[in-house]
Amino acid sequence: MDILIKSAVIVDNNSSLNNQKMDILIEKGTIVKIAKSIKKSGNYKEISYPDLHVSIGWFDFRANFCDPGNEHKEDFTSGLKAAALGGFTGVVAMPDTYPVADNKAGIEYVINKTVNSIVNVYPAGCLSEKAEGKEIAEMYDMHNAGAIAFTDNKKSVENPSLLTRAMLYAKSFNGLILEFPNEQNIFNNGQINEGVVSTKLGMKGIPSLAEELQVARAIYLAEYCDAAIHLTNISAKKSVEMIKQAKANGLKVTADVNSYHLLLDETCLENFDSNFKVLPPLRTKEDQKALIKGLKEGTIDIICSDHTPENIENKKCEFDHAAFGIINLQTSFAVANTAIKNKLPLADFIQKMTVAPRQLLNLTIPEIKEKTVANLTLFSPNTETEFTTSNLVSKSKNSPFINKKLTGKVFGVINRNKMIAI
Q1: Which pLDDT band holds residue 43 (cuts at 50, 70, 90)?
Q2: For the segment 163-197, what is each residue's pLDDT rounded down to a tens digit?
Q3: Where are the domains of the chain?
Q4: pLDDT given for residue 50 in this prediction
Q5: Contact predicate 323/396, CB 8 Å
Q6: CB of 58 within 8 A of CB of 377?
Q7: What is the pLDDT of residues 315-357, one digit of tens each?
Q8: What is the reported pTM?
Q9: How confident is the model at residue 421 (pLDDT cuts 50, 70, 90)?
Q10: Does domain 57-360 have CATH number 3.20.20.140?
Protein backbone atom coordinates (compact mmCIF):
# COMPACT_ATOMS: atom_id res chain seq x y z
CA MET A 1 0.00 0.00 0.00
CA ASP A 2 1.39 3.41 -1.05
CA ILE A 3 0.37 6.37 1.11
CA LEU A 4 1.20 10.08 1.17
CA ILE A 5 0.56 11.78 4.51
CA LYS A 6 0.27 15.54 4.07
CA SER A 7 1.16 18.28 6.57
CA ALA A 8 1.32 16.17 9.71
CA VAL A 9 2.90 17.39 12.93
CA ILE A 10 5.34 14.72 14.09
CA VAL A 11 5.02 13.87 17.79
CA ASP A 12 8.06 11.87 18.89
CA ASN A 13 10.46 12.81 21.70
CA ASN A 14 13.09 10.51 20.17
CA SER A 15 13.05 12.18 16.76
CA SER A 16 14.87 15.28 15.55
CA LEU A 17 11.65 16.03 13.65
CA ASN A 18 9.56 16.29 16.81
CA ASN A 19 6.93 19.03 16.56
CA GLN A 20 7.70 19.70 12.88
CA LYS A 21 5.01 19.66 10.19
CA MET A 22 6.08 17.26 7.42
CA ASP A 23 4.85 15.16 4.53
CA ILE A 24 5.53 11.42 4.83
CA LEU A 25 5.65 9.08 1.84
CA ILE A 26 5.09 5.37 2.46
CA GLU A 27 5.63 2.68 -0.18
CA LYS A 28 4.80 -0.97 0.44
CA GLY A 29 4.71 -0.40 4.19
CA THR A 30 8.06 1.43 4.40
CA ILE A 31 8.68 5.14 4.97
CA VAL A 32 10.69 6.22 1.91
CA LYS A 33 10.67 10.01 2.23
CA ILE A 34 9.99 12.69 4.84
CA ALA A 35 10.04 16.31 3.67
CA LYS A 36 8.37 19.67 4.11
CA SER A 37 6.48 19.11 0.88
CA ILE A 38 6.19 16.02 -1.29
CA LYS A 39 4.38 16.33 -4.61
CA LYS A 40 2.09 13.48 -5.50
CA SER A 41 3.63 11.86 -8.58
CA GLY A 42 2.35 8.29 -8.26
CA ASN A 43 -0.79 6.35 -7.44
CA TYR A 44 -0.73 7.13 -3.72
CA LYS A 45 -3.58 7.33 -1.27
CA GLU A 46 -3.34 10.84 0.10
CA ILE A 47 -4.14 11.45 3.76
CA SER A 48 -4.96 14.97 4.86
CA TYR A 49 -6.95 16.06 7.91
CA PRO A 50 -7.29 19.32 9.85
CA ASP A 51 -4.90 19.43 12.83
CA LEU A 52 -3.24 16.19 11.66
CA HIS A 53 -0.58 14.80 14.01
CA VAL A 54 1.41 11.59 13.61
CA SER A 55 3.31 9.49 16.13
CA ILE A 56 4.68 5.99 16.23
CA GLY A 57 1.85 3.49 16.74
CA TRP A 58 0.27 3.52 20.19
CA PHE A 59 0.57 0.50 22.44
CA ASP A 60 -2.03 -0.60 24.98
CA PHE A 61 -0.58 -2.41 27.96
CA ARG A 62 -3.74 -4.21 29.09
CA ALA A 63 -6.86 -5.18 27.17
CA ASN A 64 -9.38 -7.99 27.57
CA PHE A 65 -10.64 -9.66 24.39
CA CYS A 66 -12.76 -12.43 25.99
CA ASP A 67 -11.54 -14.95 23.42
CA PRO A 68 -11.72 -17.89 23.94
CA GLY A 69 -14.84 -18.58 25.98
CA ASN A 70 -16.82 -15.33 26.11
CA GLU A 71 -16.91 -14.25 22.49
CA HIS A 72 -20.44 -12.90 22.99
CA LYS A 73 -18.79 -10.02 24.91
CA GLU A 74 -15.87 -9.48 22.50
CA ASP A 75 -13.67 -11.44 20.14
CA PHE A 76 -10.42 -10.67 18.38
CA THR A 77 -12.17 -9.44 15.23
CA SER A 78 -14.26 -6.81 17.01
CA GLY A 79 -11.70 -6.06 19.73
CA LEU A 80 -8.79 -5.46 17.39
CA LYS A 81 -10.91 -3.29 15.12
CA ALA A 82 -11.71 -1.22 18.22
CA ALA A 83 -8.01 -1.10 19.05
CA ALA A 84 -7.07 0.12 15.57
CA LEU A 85 -9.83 2.74 15.50
CA GLY A 86 -8.61 3.80 18.94
CA GLY A 87 -5.12 4.41 17.53
CA PHE A 88 -3.36 1.28 18.77
CA THR A 89 -1.00 -0.79 16.65
CA GLY A 90 0.06 -3.02 19.57
CA VAL A 91 -1.78 -4.50 22.56
CA VAL A 92 -1.16 -6.88 25.44
CA ALA A 93 -3.99 -9.40 25.71
CA MET A 94 -4.93 -10.40 29.26
CA PRO A 95 -4.93 -14.16 29.95
CA ASP A 96 -7.98 -14.77 32.16
CA THR A 97 -10.17 -16.09 29.34
CA TYR A 98 -12.16 -19.33 29.44
CA PRO A 99 -10.11 -21.44 29.56
CA VAL A 100 -7.34 -19.24 30.90
CA ALA A 101 -4.03 -18.92 29.06
CA ASP A 102 -1.86 -20.71 31.61
CA ASN A 103 0.10 -22.95 29.23
CA LYS A 104 1.85 -23.00 25.87
CA ALA A 105 -1.32 -23.92 23.95
CA GLY A 106 -3.19 -20.91 25.34
CA ILE A 107 -0.44 -18.53 24.21
CA GLU A 108 -0.20 -20.12 20.77
CA TYR A 109 -3.98 -19.81 20.36
CA VAL A 110 -3.81 -16.02 20.76
CA ILE A 111 -0.82 -15.65 18.46
CA ASN A 112 -2.30 -17.82 15.71
CA LYS A 113 -5.71 -16.16 15.96
CA THR A 114 -4.28 -12.65 15.50
CA VAL A 115 -1.32 -13.18 13.18
CA ASN A 116 -2.93 -11.32 10.25
CA SER A 117 -4.31 -8.36 12.21
CA ILE A 118 -3.19 -4.79 11.61
CA VAL A 119 -2.63 -4.70 15.38
CA ASN A 120 0.30 -6.61 16.87
CA VAL A 121 -1.06 -8.74 19.73
CA TYR A 122 1.22 -9.82 22.57
CA PRO A 123 -0.38 -12.41 24.86
CA ALA A 124 0.23 -12.34 28.60
CA GLY A 125 0.23 -15.68 30.37
CA CYS A 126 -1.26 -16.46 33.74
CA LEU A 127 1.08 -16.23 36.70
CA SER A 128 -0.61 -19.13 38.47
CA GLU A 129 -2.34 -22.29 37.26
CA LYS A 130 -5.93 -21.50 36.26
CA ALA A 131 -5.33 -18.03 37.77
CA GLU A 132 -6.22 -19.55 41.13
CA GLY A 133 -3.16 -18.25 43.01
CA LYS A 134 -2.09 -21.68 44.25
CA GLU A 135 0.73 -22.94 42.02
CA ILE A 136 3.01 -21.20 39.53
CA ALA A 137 1.90 -21.71 35.94
CA GLU A 138 4.16 -23.02 33.16
CA MET A 139 5.79 -19.62 32.80
CA TYR A 140 8.96 -20.62 30.98
CA ASP A 141 7.07 -22.72 28.41
CA MET A 142 4.71 -19.81 27.82
CA HIS A 143 7.65 -17.42 27.54
CA ASN A 144 9.17 -19.61 24.83
CA ALA A 145 5.80 -19.73 23.07
CA GLY A 146 5.57 -15.93 23.00
CA ALA A 147 4.07 -14.78 26.31
CA ILE A 148 5.15 -11.19 26.88
CA ALA A 149 4.40 -11.02 30.62
CA PHE A 150 2.67 -12.90 33.44
CA THR A 151 -0.36 -11.89 35.45
CA ASP A 152 -3.59 -13.19 36.92
CA ASN A 153 -5.14 -9.90 35.75
CA LYS A 154 -7.64 -8.58 38.31
CA LYS A 155 -6.93 -11.44 40.71
CA SER A 156 -4.32 -10.13 43.11
CA VAL A 157 -1.87 -12.82 44.19
CA GLU A 158 -2.79 -13.32 47.83
CA ASN A 159 0.07 -15.68 48.72
CA PRO A 160 3.29 -13.66 49.11
CA SER A 161 5.37 -16.84 48.86
CA LEU A 162 3.86 -17.61 45.46
CA LEU A 163 4.51 -14.07 44.24
CA THR A 164 8.09 -14.22 45.52
CA ARG A 165 8.74 -17.51 43.73
CA ALA A 166 7.18 -16.18 40.54
CA MET A 167 9.37 -13.06 40.62
CA LEU A 168 12.53 -15.08 41.17
CA TYR A 169 11.58 -17.60 38.48
CA ALA A 170 10.74 -14.89 35.93
CA LYS A 171 14.03 -13.15 36.74
CA SER A 172 15.93 -16.16 35.35
CA PHE A 173 14.61 -15.53 31.81
CA ASN A 174 13.94 -11.77 32.05
CA GLY A 175 10.17 -12.22 32.31
CA LEU A 176 7.92 -9.50 33.69
CA ILE A 177 5.35 -9.94 36.46
CA LEU A 178 2.28 -7.70 36.43
CA GLU A 179 0.57 -7.48 39.81
CA PHE A 180 -2.85 -5.97 40.45
CA PRO A 181 -2.67 -4.65 44.03
CA ASN A 182 -5.95 -5.43 45.78
CA GLU A 183 -6.00 -7.06 49.21
CA GLN A 184 -9.04 -9.33 48.97
CA ASN A 185 -9.96 -9.36 52.66
CA ILE A 186 -10.03 -5.57 52.79
CA PHE A 187 -11.69 -5.27 49.37
CA ASN A 188 -14.32 -7.65 50.79
CA ASN A 189 -16.75 -7.43 47.87
CA GLY A 190 -16.96 -3.65 48.03
CA GLN A 191 -18.73 -1.75 45.27
CA ILE A 192 -17.28 1.76 45.04
CA ASN A 193 -14.55 3.81 46.68
CA GLU A 194 -14.87 4.04 50.45
CA GLY A 195 -15.49 7.66 51.33
CA VAL A 196 -18.06 10.41 51.34
CA VAL A 197 -19.94 9.14 48.29
CA SER A 198 -20.18 5.51 49.48
CA THR A 199 -21.48 6.75 52.84
CA LYS A 200 -23.98 9.05 51.14
CA LEU A 201 -25.26 6.26 48.91
CA GLY A 202 -25.20 3.61 51.62
CA MET A 203 -22.95 1.35 49.53
CA LYS A 204 -20.17 -0.95 50.66
CA GLY A 205 -16.87 0.82 50.11
CA ILE A 206 -13.51 -0.33 48.76
CA PRO A 207 -10.85 1.46 50.84
CA SER A 208 -7.70 2.64 49.10
CA LEU A 209 -5.93 0.67 51.83
CA ALA A 210 -6.76 -2.51 49.89
CA GLU A 211 -4.49 -1.21 47.11
CA GLU A 212 -1.88 0.46 49.29
CA LEU A 213 -1.12 -2.64 51.38
CA GLN A 214 -0.44 -4.72 48.28
CA VAL A 215 1.66 -1.95 46.72
CA ALA A 216 3.80 -1.85 49.88
CA ARG A 217 4.07 -5.66 49.85
CA ALA A 218 5.10 -5.75 46.20
CA ILE A 219 7.77 -3.13 46.79
CA TYR A 220 9.22 -5.06 49.73
CA LEU A 221 9.22 -8.30 47.72
CA ALA A 222 10.88 -6.61 44.74
CA GLU A 223 13.63 -5.39 47.05
CA TYR A 224 13.99 -8.80 48.71
CA CYS A 225 14.18 -10.63 45.36
CA ASP A 226 16.17 -7.91 43.58
CA ALA A 227 13.64 -8.47 40.83
CA ALA A 228 11.34 -6.37 38.67
CA ILE A 229 7.63 -6.00 39.27
CA HIS A 230 5.03 -3.94 37.47
CA LEU A 231 2.08 -2.61 39.47
CA THR A 232 -1.01 -2.30 37.32
CA ASN A 233 -4.23 -0.26 37.69
CA ILE A 234 -2.81 2.20 40.23
CA SER A 235 -5.56 4.50 41.54
CA ALA A 236 -4.62 5.91 44.98
CA LYS A 237 -2.49 8.86 46.06
CA LYS A 238 -0.52 6.90 48.68
CA SER A 239 0.28 4.23 46.10
CA VAL A 240 1.86 6.88 43.89
CA GLU A 241 3.90 8.17 46.81
CA MET A 242 5.20 4.69 47.68
CA ILE A 243 6.11 3.92 44.07
CA LYS A 244 7.92 7.25 43.78
CA GLN A 245 10.01 6.43 46.86
CA ALA A 246 10.72 2.90 45.61
CA LYS A 247 12.05 4.28 42.33
CA ALA A 248 14.16 6.82 44.21
CA ASN A 249 15.63 3.89 46.16
CA GLY A 250 16.64 2.23 42.90
CA LEU A 251 14.11 -0.62 42.99
CA LYS A 252 12.85 -2.21 39.78
CA VAL A 253 9.26 -1.08 40.23
CA THR A 254 7.11 0.31 37.42
CA ALA A 255 3.42 1.21 37.26
CA ASP A 256 0.52 2.02 34.98
CA VAL A 257 -2.74 3.92 35.32
CA ASN A 258 -6.03 3.49 33.49
CA SER A 259 -6.96 6.47 31.35
CA TYR A 260 -10.44 6.69 32.87
CA HIS A 261 -9.03 7.14 36.39
CA LEU A 262 -7.46 10.37 35.12
CA LEU A 263 -10.82 11.84 34.09
CA LEU A 264 -13.51 10.32 36.30
CA ASP A 265 -13.92 10.35 40.09
CA GLU A 266 -16.26 8.82 42.66
CA THR A 267 -18.89 11.55 42.25
CA CYS A 268 -19.77 10.02 38.86
CA LEU A 269 -21.48 7.19 40.76
CA GLU A 270 -24.04 9.33 42.53
CA ASN A 271 -26.71 8.25 40.03
CA PHE A 272 -25.93 4.52 40.45
CA ASP A 273 -24.85 4.20 36.80
CA SER A 274 -23.14 0.80 36.60
CA ASN A 275 -21.16 1.94 33.56
CA PHE A 276 -18.98 3.82 36.05
CA LYS A 277 -18.43 0.68 38.14
CA VAL A 278 -14.78 -0.27 37.65
CA LEU A 279 -12.02 -2.02 39.56
CA PRO A 280 -10.11 -0.42 41.14
CA PRO A 281 -12.99 1.98 41.79
CA LEU A 282 -13.12 5.61 40.78
CA ARG A 283 -11.50 7.43 43.67
CA THR A 284 -11.37 11.04 44.91
CA LYS A 285 -10.35 14.18 43.05
CA GLU A 286 -7.27 14.27 45.29
CA ASP A 287 -6.27 10.80 44.11
CA GLN A 288 -6.88 11.91 40.55
CA LYS A 289 -4.53 14.87 40.93
CA ALA A 290 -1.87 12.58 42.40
CA LEU A 291 -2.15 10.23 39.40
CA ILE A 292 -1.65 13.07 36.95
CA LYS A 293 1.26 14.39 39.00
CA GLY A 294 2.72 10.86 39.01
CA LEU A 295 2.60 10.83 35.21
CA LYS A 296 4.31 14.22 34.99
CA GLU A 297 7.08 13.20 37.39
CA GLY A 298 7.67 9.79 35.77
CA THR A 299 6.43 7.82 38.78
CA ILE A 300 3.71 6.26 36.63
CA ASP A 301 5.19 4.91 33.43
CA ILE A 302 2.26 3.89 31.25
CA ILE A 303 -1.34 4.85 30.41
CA CYS A 304 -3.68 1.91 29.69
CA SER A 305 -7.20 1.44 28.37
CA ASP A 306 -8.08 -1.48 30.70
CA HIS A 307 -10.62 -2.46 28.02
CA THR A 308 -13.10 -4.81 29.74
CA PRO A 309 -16.19 -5.71 27.71
CA GLU A 310 -19.35 -6.84 29.49
CA ASN A 311 -22.66 -7.90 27.99
CA ILE A 312 -25.80 -5.91 28.81
CA GLU A 313 -27.09 -8.48 31.30
CA ASN A 314 -24.03 -7.94 33.48
CA LYS A 315 -24.43 -4.17 33.53
CA LYS A 316 -28.18 -3.46 33.30
CA CYS A 317 -28.95 -4.93 36.69
CA GLU A 318 -28.89 -3.99 40.37
CA PHE A 319 -25.67 -2.09 41.05
CA ASP A 320 -24.46 -4.62 43.64
CA HIS A 321 -24.74 -7.39 41.05
CA ALA A 322 -23.30 -5.45 38.12
CA ALA A 323 -19.88 -6.48 36.79
CA PHE A 324 -16.84 -4.24 37.06
CA GLY A 325 -15.31 -2.81 33.91
CA ILE A 326 -15.79 -0.64 30.81
CA ILE A 327 -14.85 -0.82 27.15
CA ASN A 328 -12.20 1.79 26.42
CA LEU A 329 -9.96 0.95 23.47
CA GLN A 330 -11.66 3.43 21.13
CA THR A 331 -12.00 6.11 23.78
CA SER A 332 -8.81 5.75 25.81
CA PHE A 333 -6.77 8.41 24.02
CA ALA A 334 -9.54 11.01 24.07
CA VAL A 335 -10.30 10.25 27.73
CA ALA A 336 -6.68 10.67 28.83
CA ASN A 337 -6.14 13.65 26.56
CA THR A 338 -9.20 15.43 27.96
CA ALA A 339 -7.91 14.85 31.50
CA ILE A 340 -4.29 15.89 31.06
CA LYS A 341 -4.34 18.36 28.16
CA ASN A 342 -2.24 21.40 29.08
CA LYS A 343 -0.99 19.56 32.19
CA LEU A 344 1.52 17.35 30.38
CA PRO A 345 3.36 18.15 27.12
CA LEU A 346 1.79 16.25 24.23
CA ALA A 347 5.00 14.41 23.33
CA ASP A 348 5.46 13.28 26.95
CA PHE A 349 1.85 12.08 27.06
CA ILE A 350 2.22 10.12 23.81
CA GLN A 351 5.48 8.63 25.12
CA LYS A 352 3.43 6.96 27.89
CA MET A 353 1.39 5.20 25.18
CA THR A 354 4.19 4.35 22.76
CA VAL A 355 7.78 4.10 23.94
CA ALA A 356 7.31 3.35 27.66
CA PRO A 357 5.27 0.14 27.34
CA ARG A 358 7.49 -1.24 24.59
CA GLN A 359 10.65 -0.47 26.56
CA LEU A 360 9.30 -2.28 29.61
CA LEU A 361 8.50 -5.34 27.49
CA ASN A 362 11.84 -5.23 25.62
CA LEU A 363 10.12 -4.75 22.28
CA THR A 364 11.55 -2.95 19.26
CA ILE A 365 10.46 0.69 19.27
CA PRO A 366 9.21 1.95 15.88
CA GLU A 367 10.70 5.12 14.43
CA ILE A 368 9.53 7.89 12.16
CA LYS A 369 12.40 8.10 9.74
CA GLU A 370 13.23 7.12 6.18
CA LYS A 371 13.89 3.43 5.36
CA THR A 372 11.98 2.17 8.38
CA VAL A 373 8.76 0.14 8.48
CA ALA A 374 5.72 2.37 8.97
CA ASN A 375 4.05 1.82 12.34
CA LEU A 376 2.07 5.02 12.81
CA THR A 377 -0.96 6.56 14.49
CA LEU A 378 -2.74 9.53 12.90
CA PHE A 379 -4.64 11.79 15.27
CA SER A 380 -5.67 15.26 16.40
CA PRO A 381 -5.12 16.32 20.02
CA ASN A 382 -7.49 19.30 19.65
CA THR A 383 -10.55 18.06 17.76
CA GLU A 384 -13.66 17.45 19.84
CA THR A 385 -15.14 13.95 19.52
CA GLU A 386 -18.50 12.54 20.53
CA PHE A 387 -18.74 8.75 20.76
CA THR A 388 -22.08 7.08 20.07
CA THR A 389 -23.19 3.46 20.08
CA SER A 390 -23.16 3.58 16.27
CA ASN A 391 -19.43 4.29 16.01
CA LEU A 392 -18.31 1.96 18.83
CA VAL A 393 -17.35 -1.31 17.16
CA SER A 394 -16.94 -3.50 20.27
CA LYS A 395 -19.59 -6.16 20.70
CA SER A 396 -20.27 -4.80 24.19
CA LYS A 397 -21.37 -1.21 24.79
CA ASN A 398 -20.55 -0.83 28.50
CA SER A 399 -19.05 2.64 28.25
CA PRO A 400 -19.70 5.73 30.38
CA PHE A 401 -18.47 7.89 27.50
CA ILE A 402 -21.33 7.26 25.06
CA ASN A 403 -22.80 10.59 23.90
CA LYS A 404 -20.13 12.46 25.87
CA LYS A 405 -17.87 15.06 24.26
CA LEU A 406 -14.14 14.46 24.64
CA THR A 407 -11.10 16.29 23.28
CA GLY A 408 -8.96 14.28 20.87
CA LYS A 409 -9.67 12.31 17.72
CA VAL A 410 -8.00 9.32 16.07
CA PHE A 411 -7.94 9.34 12.27
CA GLY A 412 -6.39 5.91 11.80
CA VAL A 413 -3.33 3.68 11.98
CA ILE A 414 -0.76 2.29 9.56
CA ASN A 415 1.02 -0.97 10.40
CA ARG A 416 2.06 -4.22 8.72
CA ASN A 417 1.58 -2.58 5.30
CA LYS A 418 -2.10 -2.06 6.14
CA MET A 419 -4.17 0.97 7.01
CA ILE A 420 -7.44 1.51 8.83
CA ALA A 421 -8.90 5.00 8.93
CA ILE A 422 -12.15 6.84 9.55
Answers
A1: confident
A2: 999 999 999 999 999 999 999 999 999 999 999 99
A3: 3-53+370-421, 57-360
A4: 96
A5: no
A6: yes
A7: 999 999 999 999 999 999 999 999 999 999 999 999 999 999 9
A8: 0.97
A9: confident
A10: yes
Q: For 3-53+370-421, give the CATH class.
A: mainly beta
* Catalytic residue IDs: 306
